[in-house]
Design a protein that fits this description.
InterPro entries: ABC_transporter_permease, MetI-like, MetI-like_sf. The structure is a single chain. With 340 residues, this protein is mostly helical. It is built from 14 helices and 2 strands. The protein has 2 domains: 52-96, no CATH class; 100-336, MetI-like (MetI-like fold, Orthogonal Bundle). A two-stranded antiparallel sheet has the order 1-2. Helix 5 (147-155) packs across helix 8 (200-225). The two termini are 60 Å apart.
Length: 340
């Protein structure tokens, strides 16, 4: 390596750093000069590469999540104006409707459907979470037998599609073909008609219960299995019974899982559609607007009123978001306070 050395007899520094600007620099002592990165290399590494890796997810989110929501909001402020018989080109035009669709969406039919869904949720959600917690605690007990088979039997209805489950239970509810009504009639018992207007909400809740308990049970049971067994052993050494361990240790530990399953169940309740729509041909107790989503479907595809259907959809989305936020605010401190 060719180096530039200090001339003999000069007053240069031993470290190689010249004392005056005229003295040459000893590059062997200073080492090679740092390589300069090409202009723009840092910008590509810090900005372009991360955003390039995020680009597919961002594009999919904008195309399939943000764009449909934005388009629904735009439709909710429009209505179709028909001239004459609505035939020919230019007879149907789309005009700005302001908040007229939202005012029309909050009619008596929508409020009645909200009331029916709230009653359906009050029956379904507490019963489903209670049974899911009970089954999870029983399967987690040391005295339980055939736990794998029991888990499979309880979870299996969740794998059945909602339409198939509704048809299955619908034929069991139908007095003309149901074996239950055949048995009760043979025994001389006057069984109530579940497809009647007074009991149909319980029939629908039973279908949701049959299909939803297994999923919630698995979530709670998985949370229980993540708890160290030393806690249970210490409680048993202190003289706690299995019921005391369940009520004072297991239930508080799995409370965050209960909150999560409760939130999912609440959102699913507000979106009930398949069960009443499938049972509707079997009974006159279910109208085309029994649930809010059924009203949206009727407005969009039967009345061809996309503006009103879009406005109702936006209202349902806002109500779901508000209820979820309030629910989390109420239980957040107790369920997740220990994680802070």
């Amino acid at each position: 390596m060719t180096t530039a050395t200090t001339p003999s007899g000069s007053s240069g520094s031993r470290t190689g750093v010249p004392e005056t600007p005229e003295e040459p620099i000893d590059t062997a002592v200073l080492g090679p000069a740092p390589r300069r990165r090409p202009v723009g290399h840092g910008f590509r590494a810090r900005v372009l590469t991360p955003y390039g890796m995020l680009a597919p997810a961002i594009i999919l989110f904008l195309a399939f999540m943000a764009a449909p929501i934005l388009y629904t909001v735009v439709l909710s402020f429009q209505r179709v104006q028909v001239q004459g018989l609505g035939l020919g080109s230019g007879a149907r035009t789309t005009v700005f409707a302001g908040f007229a669709n939202y005012v029309a969406a909050l009619d008596a039919e929508f409020l009645a459907s909200v009331g029916r869904v709230l009653l359906y949720g009050l029956i379904l959600v507490p019963t489903m979470l209670g049974l899911a917690l009970l089954f999870a605690l029983l399967l987690d007990s040391k005295r339980s037998r055939a736990t794998r088979f029991s888990r499979l039997v309880i979870f299996l209805p969740y794998a059945v599609p909602g339409v198939i489950a509704s048809l299955l239970w619908g034929f069991l509810y139908l007095p003309a073909v149901s074996p239950f009504y055949f048995i009760t009639e043979a025994l001389g018992i006057d069984a109530p008609t579940i497809l009647s207007s007074g009991l149909i909400v319980f029939g629908l809740a039973n279908i949701g219960l049959w299909g939803g308990v297994g999923f919630n049970m698995v979530v709670i049971y998985t949370s229980l299995k993540a708890v160290p067994s030393d806690i249970y052993e210490a409680a048993r050494l202190d003289g706690c019974s299995e019921i005391q361990i369940a009520l004072r240790i297991k239930v508080p530990i799995v409370f965050p899982a209960l909150v999560m399953t409760g939130l999912f169940s609440l959102i699913a309740t507000l979106q009930v559609f398949a069960e009443p729509t499938t049972l509707r041909p079997l009974t006159n107790a279910l109208s085309t607007t029994w649930s809010p989503l059924m009203k949206v479907y009727r407005d969009a595809f039967t009345r061809d009123d996309l503006g009103s259907a879009a406005a109702t959809s936006v209202v349902i989305a806002v109500v779901s978001l508000a209820l979820s936020f309030v629910f989390l605010r109420i239980v957040q401190k107790r369920a997740f306070g220990q994680e802070d």
